[in-house]
Amino acid sequence: MVRRWNLHTVCESAACPNRQDCYSQGRLTFMILGNICTRNCSFCGVASGRPLAPDPGEAERLCQAVGELGLEHVVVTSVCRDDLPDGGAAEFARNIELLRDYSRGIGVEVLIPDFRGSLAALERVVAARPDVLNHNVETVPRLYPAVRPQAKYLRSLEVLRRARSMDGELITKSGLILGLGESEVEVKSVMGDLRSADCDAITLGQYLRPSVRHHQVVRYLTCEEFARYELIAADMGFLGIASGPLVRSSFNAAGLQREVCLNRDKGCSVAVSVEHGGPSVA
Fold first, then answer.
1. Are 248 and 16 in contact (CB under 8 A)?
2. Which of 47, 109, 181, 263: CA 20 to 30 A from 147?
3. Backbone dihedral region of 99: left (phi > 0), alpha (psi from -120 to 50 degrees) or beta?
């Protein structure tokens, strides 16, 4: 189906270890604006280089694919497009708006890049009213030069902080990949920074090396460590948490959204209960 509609998924382009499980259930995370990224993060399996111009028919084909799959919650991400004036924000907004026109009741989640810190680009996406806005900090600040050389930690935090200030009802979400050489103290500090930015939901998963050319796996965390991070996140006030070895950014995406909404209504900070290391669901 993905090939027939000439679409891309981060599931395949980033070599997600849960792809077979999700595909067998008709679940996936769409990746717009092509499959070539203008950045070269050392942890990511997506190809980097010079991308093609945006495809004007991509958003319509994505909606058709959503209809064929019967999806009720759609996750849309993209490669980084630093070559575009708005970083691809207009295409994100267009996809959100077309999905809303397609089905008024559909859940729409976007996993966005940092748009190089452009507030106008972020405002364009938020104005389209996604249900969930995800932007991953990925790792701890000390490792940014080696892991995310073209990104800035404080800029990523600002994306989340600004998005929340633009729309108080918007669910914000971020994620960390662990095993790159970070310490527990550093992870806790990042989690605290995310809560200070009023981030609602967090995902924590084990880094798996896409190839020998990528950043090495420094350590494999135990399931007990992931369980401890889940408890720490709950104590910090995250309303939705997915923590386990195979958790990825779109892990149980619809479920995390429901739990955040439920816990907001309750006015409390209750963590999502997930099976540690279970398959990713987009």
1. yes
2. 109
3. alpha
Output the pLDDT for position 282.
Answer: 37
- Judge whether 133 and 173 are in contact, CB under 8 Å: yes
**Beta strand 73-78 with 107-111: parallel, antiparallel or unpaired?**
parallel
Query: The domain 8-266 belongs to what CATH superfamily?
Result: Aldolase class I (3.20.20.70)
Tell me the domain boundaries of the chain. 8-266
CA nearest 32: which of 115, 126, 95? 95
Cα–Cα distance measured from residue 239 to residue 232, given in angstroms and rounded to the nearest whole number: 12
pLDDT tens for each residue of 110-128:
999 999 999 999 999 999 9
pLDDT at 139 exceeding the cut of 60: yes
Token pair listed for 262? 């439920």
Decide: residue 199, CB within 10 A, 0-12 exposed, 13-18 middle, 19+ buried: buried
